Every structure is written in structure tokens, then in C-alpha cells.
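Internal tracking record. Fields below are filled automatically when a chain is submitted to the structure queue. Please do not edit lines marked as system-generated. If the sequence contains nonstandard residues, flag them in the REMARKS field before resubmitting.
Queue: standard
Priority: normal
Entity type: single polypeptide chain
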Amino acid sequence: MPSFAAPNFQMTTPMLVQPYAAFKEQGRIEKSVKKWRDQALKDGRLVKFDENTMVGIFLSHTWWDREYTDSRNDKKDPYDKGAPDYQKEYDGARTKNKKWQIICDGVEALAKEKGVPLSKVVLWLDWQSIYQDNKAEKLKGVNSLIKYATLCKYMLIPTEAKHRPDKPYKIDGYGSRGWCRAEYFIFQTWAEMLRQDVELYAIYTPERRGFEYATDAELEAMSNSRFAMYSREREAYEEAKKNGVEPAKVELAHFSSAQVYAAHQLPSNGQLSNPADKLLVQKLEDEMVQAYGKTAITTACTNGARDRACILAHKMMREVHMPLLAKAVDQHRVTTMQLNTCQLGSSGVTALADAFAKGAFKSLTNLGLGENSIGPKGAKALAVLLKHAKGLEELDLIRNPLCHDDDTYNVSGFKEMVSALAANPKLKVLQLCGCGLRVEGGQALGAALQHNSALAKLGVAYNFVGPAGGKAIVDRLMSNKSLTELDFSQNLLGGSLRGGNSWASDDSCAIGIAKLLETNRALTSIELGMNGLSKRGGLAIANALGTNKSLKRLMLEVNDFSASDEAGKALRLRVANRGEFKETPQGFQGTMLYAGKGLQVQVAADPERAWGPEVVEMVADELNKAPHLK
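SYSTEM-GENERATED OUTPUT FOLLOWS
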């Protein structure tokens, strides 16, 4: 039983299950229509679930015979077709009642492994356990799906796979289906709420031929993961043969931990035969996420109480959870809250900002909101958050499309957000890497930095702000006395792409960086890798190091110069002049590290590792795949 206040999931119609012995005896998967159902209930082949005396196995599966129809189908309903198992002989691989046999083999293998008497095992299988001939009763069963799944001890997925699947969503023909996703999503999420291992298994039938006849060439062609899996299966097979034991007909792949779900892997984004089912799947998903979030918040605040932390990364936080989150954080006086990769979206962060505006989260000093699909509307909400989060010192917003609304570039919300930096006197760290700022976003950030005197660390990597956006930021940092670390990598500061994959150099930003180094005495670390800075730009930066004595770290890998040319040699000389000089090739990175007293500089080791046509083509391809970065 759970150690928390368990949600009261609804069960609007009894949970009907079939004793395993009856399932095996009937020799097929039956459809719950009145004639069969009435007789099965009378004979005890279909019974109400009793969690005190029965061990429930939930069978999660996809239809294998999707186009099959017979006299029991409603001819007026275009979606009333298909069957979970093959209903006739098709070919050698698709044989009648194949899934029924796989289920029997899998149930017996699981019962043996877990030491569960088969006499206690009952099966929940939708085609048999939910009315298929009465839409009102069928809907009651669908609405009770969460309750049914959470009452079961185990979940089994019958598959036609020949090799061990490593994730449920990767199972061919199953993992992409909306209803299948809903079932294992509920089961895995419930297990995490209970803080238990997930008793979720896929049944697969190992292909024995490969164990005995694989050639050396076939072995060499296997990927490392495939070879490791192959080796484990072959060792088990050979060990069984040596001991005179007949190898099991099927194997069980155990998915022992809860899956961290990306938005595209959620049930509501799965495939559905009937589009009208999307609302039902979404309802189940929302109900489970809401219950899960409440438990996750309580657990995170309790577990992190000693460190005054609330770590909720990858925990599917939504708008509906924000009032409870605010209450829990305030109650525990949390200072660090991580909500990275929680699928908040703009609506979630708006609710979060509203809570800040109402006086919640006063104890917070560190807030992580990275990878939450926060767009321009969310950026506008973040402006409200920054105005009211007077005690916030660190804010992580990496990989949020702050300037990208669907297919449209929209910098208005971001402008409001960065303008609010002036109203926040304590914010020292701001991470904006991969937020799709581009030129106008870079210019807006530069304008905001002019009025900020608190930021000490700024991350704007992978934003492709270009020379104009980069120079706007650099110019505003000339007189800044607080910023000590700047990550400016992957921003195309040295030029722009023209006509597809053609590169046009522009030294304006590099010259600006050189001037910044001559005048700014606060900066200690700058990352400028992957920017296409020219040799002229590299020389200007090298010359600036002659007067700058405060900089301790300068990363310049993958620019249009290397250790062997004039710019690289000039940088080497500047570092060597500091004394205690060492140069060390960084083999795996293809760079050369120059280290002197109080200063490290890294450049490409040779022209092949520097900026060139191949890198330009790679960047162009990357931009084409991510329109919000263009």
C-alpha cells in the first residue's frame, strides 16, 4: 500500500478479470459481448477483482489483426473493426491465436520467476474485461482504466519481437500507439509515486538460430549494445543446453524504472485508430499527471528539507500544480528549486509567475526552468517573475524557444523579460543558452545589460546572434564591472551564412571583443568557440591580451585560425609571456591548450580542426533543422 495519501481514482464499473486457468483453457482471447460475458460470469471464467486474494496482471497490447470484422461488429461504425489477436491463419509468422499463446508462455514465465502460484493469477485484458457491445458501459471501463492499472501487481506486454526491447516506446507497433502509451504511462508513473520498482515486462521470443550460426562477420557488424544483448542471450541459451534444460519459449524484458517522458512520447501524442479517442486519452493523461505532480512535490520538498532544495527536474509539472508547489516551497523555506524539463510550457510558467506576483517563493535564490518549451508568451510572464523575485540570484532558462512562437520569430516577450533585469538587484547568474535569440534578441539583451549591475555569469551560447547581435552585447559590457564569466560560443560572431552554405566573414564583433578585453577588468572567463572568427579577429584578440591581466580563461576552438598560423602563434606568445608556460594537445577535442601563469587559452590544434567548409555545412544543416535558430 502507498505511504502517502493515495489519490482516489474512479472506478465506475467493476474490474472484471479472468483466472489464468480459464484463460489458458479457452485457447483464445475472447471478445466481451453479451452472450460470452453472461456465460463467463455464470461459470466463473470472468470474475470481479479482489485485491486481497488475487494477483492481477494487466495485459497491455496493440491490435494485431486490425482489419478483421465478423458478425459481432457494428457495420455502421467505421471504427468498430479489428481484433487483438490473429483471427485466422495468414502466414508462417501470423498464425491464429498467436498472441494468446505468447501471453500464456509469458504469464507462466513471470509466475515462475516471482514465485506466484498460478491459481492466484488473474488477467485484465481489455477485449475481455471491458464491454465491447455497449458503448455506455465501455466508456465506464475506459474511464476506470487508471484504477484498473494501479490495482494490478504486474503489467505484461505481449510482442512479436525476436530480441529484447530496451524501452516500451521503442517496441515496434506498440510504443507509438496512444492507448498503449496510456497504459504503461499510468503503470510506470504509479510505481514512481509508490517509490517502487516498476513491475513492467515485455514478452519476446528469442530467435535461436543466431546463437548457433552467427558468423564472425555478422558479429563484427553488430553495434556494441546489440552485441552485448546478443551475448547475454547466447550465454543463457548455451548454459541451459549444457545443463540439459529446455530453453524457455519466451523471455521477459524488465523495464524496472520509470521512464522520463518527453512531450512527444506522452500518450496524447500517440497514434489512434479513432481520432475521437484523443480526448479520452488526454483526460487519463491529465488525471495521472495531476496526481503524480502532487506526490512529486511533497516528496521533493520533504527529501530536500535539510538542504532547503526542491528538485523536480523531469517530473511533469503543470499549471495546475503551481499553487501546491508555492505552498510547499514556502513551508519548507526552499532556496533552490529545479523545474528543468518539466513540460511547463508558457501556461505553466505564467502560473508560476502569478504565484511570485502574489508573494510566494520569497525564499528562492536559485531557479531552474530549462527545456520547458517556454515561448514568447512565457518570456513575457518571466518579466513579471523577475520583477517580483527580489531574492533570486540564479535563473536557468536554457533551451527554451523564448523568441520563437511555432514557426514565427517573435522577440517581444524576450524584450520585456530582459528589460526586467534592471528591476532585479540580486540576479547574478543567467543562463540563456539555446534560446533562439538571433540578431534582434542579442541586441535586446545588449540594451538590457547597460542597465544591469548585478550579473556575474551570463550564458548565451548556441543562439546565433551573429556579428550585429554579438557586438550589441559586447559594446554594453565595456563599462560593466560585475560580469566575470561569459559563454559566447556557437553564435556565428565571425560572419554569416550567405546563399546556402557560403560563409561571409565579418570582423566587427571580434574587434569589439578585443576592445572589451582592453577596457574591462571584471571578466575572468570567455568562451568563444565555434564562431568562425577570422585570423584578423584572432590577432586582434591576441593583441588585447597584452594589456589585459584579469582574464584567466579564453576558449577559441573551431574558429578560422589554429595553433599553426599567425593568430594561433600570437595567442601562444601572449600566454607564454605570463611565465610558467605549458602547451598541451587535447587529443579528443583536436585542440591545443596554452597555459601560463593565471591564463589558459585553447585554440584548434591544426587547420583541419578549425573553421572550414565542413563546419559551415554542418552549421547550415543544423539551422535548417531548427528554424527558430535561423
